[in-house]
Amino acid sequence: MKVALFGAGRIGKVHAASIKTDPRSELVAVTDVVTDAAQALADEHGIVSRPAGDILADTSIDAILIASSTNTHADLIEAGVKAGKAIFCEKPIDLDLERALKVRQIARHHDKPMMMGFNRRFDPNFAALKAALDAGEIGKGELLTVTSYDPAPPPASYIKVSGGLYRDMMIHDFDMCAFLFGMPKTVTAHGSCLVDPAIGAAGDIDTAVVVLTYADGRLATIRNSRRAPYGYDQRVEVLGSQGALAVRNEVENSVEKSTAGGVVSSKPVYFFLERYMRAFAIEWAGFVGSCLDGTPVPASIQDGVNALALAEAANRSLAEGRPVEVTAGMTGG
Amino acid sequence: MKVALFGAGRIGKVHAASIKTDPRSELVAVTDVVTDAAQALADEHGIVSRPAGDILADTSIDAILIASSTNTHADLIEAGVKAGKAIFCEKPIDLDLERALKVRQIARHHDKPMMMGFNRRFDPNFAALKAALDAGEIGKGELLTVTSYDPAPPPASYIKVSGGLYRDMMIHDFDMCAFLFGMPKTVTAHGSCLVDPAIGAAGDIDTAVVVLTYADGRLATIRNSRRAPYGYDQRVEVLGSQGALAVRNEVENSVEKSTAGGVVSSKPVYFFLERYMRAFAIEWAGFVGSCLDGTPVPASIQDGVNALALAEAANRSLAEGRPVEVTAGMTGG
Amino acid sequence: MKVALFGAGRIGKVHAASIKTDPRSELVAVTDVVTDAAQALADEHGIVSRPAGDILADTSIDAILIASSTNTHADLIEAGVKAGKAIFCEKPIDLDLERALKVRQIARHHDKPMMMGFNRRFDPNFAALKAALDAGEIGKGELLTVTSYDPAPPPASYIKVSGGLYRDMMIHDFDMCAFLFGMPKTVTAHGSCLVDPAIGAAGDIDTAVVVLTYADGRLATIRNSRRAPYGYDQRVEVLGSQGALAVRNEVENSVEKSTAGGVVSSKPVYFFLERYMRAFAIEWAGFVGSCLDGTPVPASIQDGVNALALAEAANRSLAEGRPVEVTAGMTGG
Amino acid sequence: MKVALFGAGRIGKVHAASIKTDPRSELVAVTDVVTDAAQALADEHGIVSRPAGDILADTSIDAILIASSTNTHADLIEAGVKAGKAIFCEKPIDLDLERALKVRQIARHHDKPMMMGFNRRFDPNFAALKAALDAGEIGKGELLTVTSYDPAPPPASYIKVSGGLYRDMMIHDFDMCAFLFGMPKTVTAHGSCLVDPAIGAAGDIDTAVVVLTYADGRLATIRNSRRAPYGYDQRVEVLGSQGALAVRNEVENSVEKSTAGGVVSSKPVYFFLERYMRAFAIEWAGFVGSCLDGTPVPASIQDGVNALALAEAANRSLAEGRPVEVTAGMTGG
């Protein structure tokens, strides 16, 4: 299976490496508007850097992996559909929910796999938690808490084009809630700027708590912060009718030091590359599997729409200071 | 220091035992409307069972400990003030905030210690967390999460007179938030009946998430459930600008068993008697210290009003489906 | 059940407190060659300080608790037997194995309970481990490791009268091995003076590893140090044919602090008073139970002889640089 | 740097994968007496399978990696030296200490890197422990314990050619002791057959405790079992004058499940491939670094001799039932 990569930035490099971990797929080309970046990545992998149009026109290429900047995702998905490629796209589909719904409409009749890059679903820890939950090991899930703290805030320049915390950062956590509990009925958002005043000046928040309520009474809470001085804090807890499940952080090493000052163990691994390295590879294998076997993709474009709709609801909730209902219209239902 | 106990039920017995742990105080009498219960407790401790009026009139008695049913608290505090006794009262002051504010008004000019039984403040774990937070060990606190799950729900008959989850159960967690972060600006409540339909039939919820926002942008989340099949789940987490603090559960024992089935360690201790046994003793020592040294009580009647005001706001928020502001009027400020 | 205490030193005070935790027993008298110490303890507990002879002659006293200095234990046990008292004696019976065997001979025909104070058997953690082991939860035990590090070494003056590390400190661990695995076939001892040269100058060691081999091939290892800067380190591990059991340390509190410097949790509780407080009370309840119900004592004088025999074998092994067999003669078998 | 691999069995495959993780090295050929195995591995990696002699004669090949059966190691090292190759050899040099000493003599004047595959030195956990120990973070090391339990015993057929537990399995732990504490003065070995009677019938043990004493009084204990039903148990503890360091096991995932039955967390990863996957890659990078930069190899042929000498001493100690001195002659000193 021949693959071309759109985007040679940080996340593009991650995916280039992931593609190599699966012997069933082969990275054959890369493109980027920053041609130097594309060329450097091409050289590193012994492949060619080509214009986007050429790649789409090349019928020997089976799949495209979209890891370019967010504002290009929707156009590239549409172009990929037109070109008949299998498509793997990094989250989000678009910052605009209306646009995302249109893309979904177009992709609906695509007869090739179209998958969204919600990498956390493939983290072995979260996957094990979901498996245990689905197997009924703690009865019926009732209270879900998703915690996601970045180690350090991005620069304000990034914040300005990010679409805001809910669409840029919490979107992963919205997807985690949807992954584990399905779609909620209401979204109530709270948020502040506590970490970096420049983030507030850019019109965004850096600290947030969002509560989701479900039609059957279940509740979910998401906690986000742009700064956890001890590293990337990525945890999930579910309380169920017969027990609880929790994913703790993965840590740098297993050394424990005991002195008069206390018992010191290792910090969580620093950031998403360290924490989700394995998840990216498993995610890619899932996409390749869908391409080769025709099995449904493990994270669909509808999942991408759903997470975006929750982010949109959170934005409205924060702006209006009230719970916001998640309607069928918001998710194209 | 001679002490009389009002109430010979479950919590009364706990306090009778606590009084004995401090050599500076002596339990001399007990009273209860269920005279048999009072007599049994009196016999067990080698003291006398007397009518409430006699106790209040007995000038040799320095302090009264109110552990009777909630609906008697306000009257007994007022009677205790009139009788010139030092007063220790179990939470809450009353289920009605207006009544509590009146009691506070009366107690304001009392020249003897008047303390509320917020036992969790005295748990060595939470106390150590607060000390570290106040010492700036994690910088400025930003995100607080208080988790409190009971092992099993009470009978519906109890629910009916309890005042509801927010005033009966979460009041401890409201106090914990006030203890660690002070009084919030808004309260947003969510809640469902998932554990026992009889609780819902009694007009109450058994599963709840409440978010508090603070004027300076800090956020706090409280999670409650009436059922945690693995035992009493009592945790607190604070994310700060320079780190995080967490209180984990105390467990039954430190044995770890590793087999092909996994690594099994001990459950959290079962319920509040096991978990807060030490806290009750430390709490009592704090009251005795205030009585003997004139130092301020570590949990005042204002703290009791504050927690009740937050519960009241939560009730309103849940009923009206919107965030509720905590006003100065609500706390008698 | 009326009890008299012999010895008003540190361990005597611990036992005086333990006696009070069991309502079935009552401390009525104390004696000590340091009469001031006896009087102080008597005053604290509202009892009388009396000469040892008077106590032994007083037929209203049912039991004696021997917590005086080691060199008085054997004589007092013999006197207690003669006086027809139930006897609880702190470890060891005597520093001399021959003497201990004679005491055992005399006590053999005593018709009252005679119990040795091996407090660790009653620690809820070790007791839970033994229960799981005996229940076959990890199959058959194969490899046992007992770890016991004191937080700080005693003064050299104490070392001189202590009987040496094996008889003074490791005797508890020998008993733990006997408690869990029974009596071994050989003892091989290693030891050094690494902590305090004054201990070496006093002819003793402060760091030791002893290996016990069992007739059926099982192996046990004991690790001792007189110094663990992080607190009292008291652990046990058993590897069995179907799994493993481990007792971890009990810690000061459950607070965990995460900062850029690492994740810091609490140290083990400082020393034996903190760690074994509960064990002392449970131990005493066991003795009272034997006195009242006639059930066998949970730690017999034979257990005291056994532990001493292992210490004696360790001393010989260290001196001669070779494994030493544990013979029937050494344990009076 | 072009590399040829000797041995296409289990450990050969591990090394073939490791070689690929370092872009500075390239696997170009493989050889094995089982030519089908060699061809299969060659096919998998797109390289050639060649006779050993051809590889040694090929001057374009810079380094050989010896992962063939133990009885070929010594001859291949000598052949590699003669052919002027850099040499990486799996442990042990040979089962016979005399033979190993001769190989070391020959390798002494080799001007290319010659490294032994003591993979555990490169495990990030053990490496972090050593770094902390060497940095004096716990003062001076005093008591070392190395625990190594395999998940399940090998077949008796393997046992027969293995050289016995001390040379086959504990050799890694002897190296760990030497790595952390240096070479000891005495070795005292204990061992039994508890896991599988077929192992005993083959003249070997499957459960062992060995104590090492050091000239300066430090002590080390090694615990081995061929069976830990919960997975590969690989831990190290050091007690030092100012604290302690411990490496805990790495676990399968970070999920924790709490139910009425207890709190269950994940088992240790199953065996050495899972646990030491990263270590093999880091080890190989260390060898490549030595080849390219001329820095000393991080595990030398002397280290290989030293570990073998300790295994030899353990065999003698077990046979003779006494401590055995480690002499300069044994390590070619």
Q: What does this protein look like?
A:
By secondary structure, chain A is of the alpha/beta class. In chain A, 39% of the residues lie in helices and 24% in strands. A seven-stranded mixed beta sheet of chain A has the order 12-11-7-10-9-8-15. In chain A, helix 1 crosses helix 11 and helix 9 packs across helix 12. The longest helix of chain A has 22 residues. The two termini of chain A are 33 Å apart. In chain A, 58% of the residues are buried. Strand 13 of chain A pairs antiparallel with strand 12 of chain D.
What is the subunit organization of this protein?
homotetramer
Give the overall shape of chain A. globular
Share of helical residues of chain A: 25-40%
Number of helices of chain A: 12
How much is the radius of gyration of chain A in Å? 20 Å
Largest interface: A-B, 36 and 36 residues
Q: Distance between termini of chain A?
A: 33 Å
Share of residues in strands of chain A = 15-25%
Q: Characterize the largest beta sheet of chain A: strand count, sense, and whether it forms a barrel.
A: 7 strands, mixed
* Poorly predicted residue ranges of chain A: none
Structural class of chain A: alpha/beta
Q: Could you tell me the number of beta strands of chain A?
A: 15
Strand order of the largest sheet of chain A: 12-11-7-10-9-8-15
Helix-strand pattern of chain A, N to C? EHEHEHEHEHEHEHHHEHEEEEEEHHE
- Overall pLDDT confidence of chain A: 97
